[in-house]
Design goal:
binds adenosine-5'-triphosphate; about 15% strand; 16 strands; five-stranded parallel β-sheet; Beta-Lactamase; Helicase, Ruva Protein, domain 3; 3 domains; alpha/beta; Rossmann fold; about 475 residues; 20 helices; P-loop_NTPase; DNA-binding; five-stranded antiparallel β-sheet; PAS domain S-box-containing protein
């Protein structure tokens, strides 16, 4: 080696060698076959070898738990990875090395002197922060997007068509919307669709499930907090969902489950259009459209003094009531076909549809769990069935529930007025014809041997 005082005369090779042999670092290079092509004295010594004993040996033989091969595979570097080997913690950087755009190997460099714990602590912290950041980003991305549009709402019953028209209309305003309906009727789907049909569609859509967040946390979730607002408050504070939804829409799901003190705070936000962060020094103006949903009867809750009447009127500027599935059975064939397609994709199945008898079963059942229940039954059946058409025996639980339903309904089996029986048979025939023709009303009327106008009239009555 050259005289250190004369270091400026070092050749490039001598410099590179000095860098590689730097005793503070373990350095290794593997080629695309995973063969060790270069290893410095420090690292070889640490592994209990001399460098020349390791050159040209597969890395896996020497360090079976190596992560260098991952970098070889993905081409993605690792920075500051904390790695434990032989009881020592190392802060490792692994870099793919390219030549003419092609990966020719991976360089691994580790600081392994234990006294470098400061550097390792630092690397550990960065890693932790990176992890947190990635999970918050993913959460935000997930929460801030509205997934569905009006076209995703399946159903051509009069009730559904009217609701879809209403969605387009209310989407043009910023008015607060209250969506009511039994569980599983599609309230969330409608909330997404309103946002996506509105001028706010390119801004955030933030969903808050008021039930799943404990009461004491809901306030900080909705309004955020300033640094040091309370013990355990995160450094730098936290933005609340209202601020995250700035310019967009906030969807307050299960609003009926919000406690009364939060109801009062929410009322203030709706009145003043501003929020106050916990520990904050002043109000923050928010431009957010509010859509709330509930499957509870808020009017009854008001009478029982569980829901504030003034908040109810603030929320209920536009009301969207999604009828239960049993009140729009004409949607069932189309919904079933849509859900089978959706489930086929998710479960990698290839079910073609429902046998007529299965559809008949569906049309008789009352669907207390609405579209979600329909989806669940189809999912179970698709999972268990070995044929490409689903038959009644693929829905054993549904068959049982239907029997119970009929037994519980005295009119179900006993002698009933002729008019009622005829009407029911007529409804079933119409639904079958619609299912058979993929909802083509003209074609369905032809199959039924009636004029189109007669079919339309009967369908309106059915709804
Ligand atoms: N008209 C529809 N078209 C297509 N899919 C629907 C329709 N209605 C509901 N679904 C599907 O049914 C499931 C339940 O819908 P959603 O979660 O919107 O119901 P919800 O009324 O918000 O229920 P909950 O009150 O229990 O929260 C979802 O998978 C949704 O995509």
């Amino acid at each position: 080696m050259a005289d250190p005082k004369n270091y400026s005369s070092l050749t490039r090779e001598e410099l590179l060698k000095a860098i590689v042999e730097n005793p503070n670092e373990a350095t290794i290079f593997i080629d695309t076959q995973g063969i060790i092509r270069l290893i410095n004295y420090e690292y070889a010594d640490f592994l209990g070898y001399k460098p020349e004993e390791l050159i040209n040996r597969p890395i896996l033989e020497v360090v079976p738990q190596t992560r260098l091969l991952e970098v070889l595979k993905t081409g993605k570097p690792h920075f500051g990875d904390i790695w434990t080997i032989r009881g020592h913690q190392l802060a490792v950087t692994r870099l793919p090395i390219l030549k003419d755009g092609q990966i020719i190997g991976v360089l691994g460099r580790s600081m392994f002197k234990d006294e470098l714990s400061l550097a390792m602590e630092f690397a550990k912290k960065i890693k932790q922060l990176e992890k947190e950041l990635a999970s918050y980003r993913a959460e935000l991305d997930q929460q801030r997007r509205a997934k569905y549009v009006v076209g995703d709402i399946i159903g051509h019953s009069d009730k559904m068509l009217r609701l879809k028209q209403k969605v387009h209309k209310v989407a043009q305003t910023s008015s607060t919307v209250l969506i009511t309906g039994e569980s599983g009727t599609g309230k969330e789907l409608f909330a997404h669709a309103i946002h996506n049909a509105s001028p706010r569609k390119n801004r955030a859509f933030v969903r808050v499930n008021c039930t799943s967040i404990p009461t004491e946390l809901l306030e900080s979730e909705l309004f955020g907090y300033e640094e040091g607002a309370f013990t355990g408050a995160r450094r730098g504070g936290k933005l609340g969902k209202f601020e995250l939804a700035q310019g967009g829409t906030i969807f307050l799901d299960e609003i009926g489950d919000m406690n009364k003190s939060m109801q009062a705070k929410l009322l203030r936000v709706l009145q003043e259009k501003e929020i106050e962060r916990i520990g904050g020094t002043g109000p923050v103006l928010v431009d957010v459209r509010v859509i709330a949903a509930t499957n509870r009867n808020l009017e009854e809750m008001i009478m029982a003094q569980q829901f504030r009447e003034d908040l109810y009127y603030r929320l209920n500027v536009v009301m969207l009531h999604i009828p239960p599935l049993r009140e729009r059975k004409t949607d069932i064939p189309e919904l079933a076909a849509h859900l089978i397609e959706k489930l086929n994709r998710r479960l990698r199945a290839a079910v073609n549809g429902l046998a007529k008898e299965a559809l008949n079963l569906f049309l008789q059942y009352d669907w207390p769990g609405n579209v979600r229940e329909l989806e669940n039954f189809l999912e179970q059946a698709i999972n268990l069935s070995e044929q490409d058409i689903l038959y009644p025996h693929d829905f054993p639980v549904l068959e049982k529930r239907l029997q119970k339903q009929l037994a519980g309904n005295p009119g179900g089996r006993a002698v009933r007025p002729l008019q009622e029986v005829v009407r029911e048979a007529e409804t079933r025939a119409i639904l079958n014809a619609l299912a058979a023709t993929n909802h083509n009303k003209k074609e369905a009327a032809r199959l039924l041997g009636v004029h189109r106008s007669v079919l339309y009239r009967k369908m309106v009555k059915m709804d």
